[in-house]
Amino acid sequence: MDDWDAGMDDDEAGAVMKAVARQLKLWREAAGLTQAEFGTAIGYGEELVSSVERGRRIPRPEFLDRADEALGAGGKLAALKADVAEIRYPKKVRDLKKMEAESVELCAYNNSVIHGLLQTEDYARAVIGNRQPPFPQNEVERRVAGRVDRQGIISTKTGLPVLNFVQCEATLRRCTGGTMVLRSQLERLLEVGQLSNVSIQVLPLSREENAGLEGPFQLLRLKDGSTVGHNESQLISRVISNPKELQTLELRYGMIRAQALTPRESLAFIDKVRGET
Q1: Where are the beta strands (DSSP E) in the chain?
Q2: Cα 119 to Cα 151: distance, rounded to the nearest angstrom
Q3: Which residues contact residue 128 at a Cβ distance below 8 angstroms, ignoring those fewer than 6 apart?
Q4: pLDDT of 5 above 90
Q5: Distance separating alpha carbons of residues 189 and 191, to the nearest angstrom
Q6: What is the SS3 assignment for 137-158?
Q7: Which of 18, 52, 85, 192 has its CA 20 to 30 A from that of 254?
């Protein structure tokens, strides 16, 4: 259960956990079981049961299924799985996922790492694991799970959103996670780049002009017709809605796309780099 620790600074998750914990405690007490007896009945320790009831641990689906059966809740506790499914991830990951789900088009530029929606699990683990000061291992796994969960929009059967990524060549050559992790990541780019709603472009290091030197950012065009930007840098994750700032980002992204290789040229370039890895 380590990677299901509850974030203490997350009000939204805290409110859900408080309600779930209250229900679990009420059902346990109604059954006349101590925390130790309840833990034995469902195959968990007393300390873990106590942590869940205090809202410090997010119960896994199997915990709620076993609790439902042991307490004769008739599906009422098992139904709480839907409430806790999302809050296991950090709040900024949940917020970003919501924005991405509301998008009809996502445009992203990155010159430091492969964009999160394109990352393999091992590559994501290496990126997040490189953070200093380092995250505890359970937090690394929690963030990796959240990043992988966001990638569901890529395989959507509706063909939406339309996704365009521009990756600086440096991100293709930086050996994040080691040679095998990087090679698998390049193969992932080649695979995703074949999807009809995805285009991947590479901005070569040999280009004399690069409008993206100020760092990574993305633009999300939403279903309601509005556009928002998102910028993540050192210790900051910021949503941008100011019209003048958005105008600057849109102009900048247009220049970056024009300076990059075409999608077809880019896939050939990625394949070449993979062969050199």
Answers
A1: 103-110, 162-168, 198-203, 217-222, 227-233, 236-240
A2: 9
A3: 135, 140, 143, 144, 147
A4: no
A5: 5
A6: HHHHHHHHHHHHHHHHHHHCCC
A7: 192
Q: What is the band of 2 on the pLDDT scale with cuts at 50, 70, 90?
A: very low
- Residue type (1 letter), 262: T
Helix (H, G, I), strand (E, B) or coil at 201: strand
**Helical pair 11-30 and 46-53, crossing angle rounded to 10 deg:** 120
Specify whether the CB–CB gap between 149 and 89 falls below 8 A. yes
DSSP 49-90: HHHHHTTSBPPPHHHHHHHHHHHT-TTTTGGGHHHHTTTTS-
The C-alpha atoms of residue 193 and residue 164 are separated, in whole angstroms, by: 10
Q: How far apart are CA 74 and CA 68, in angstroms?
A: 7
The pLDDT tens digits of the residues spanning 169-218 come to: 999 999 999 999 999 999 999 999 999 999 999 999 999 999 999 999 99
- Which tokens belong to 95? 């917020």
Q: Which residue has the tokens 């209250």?
A: 22
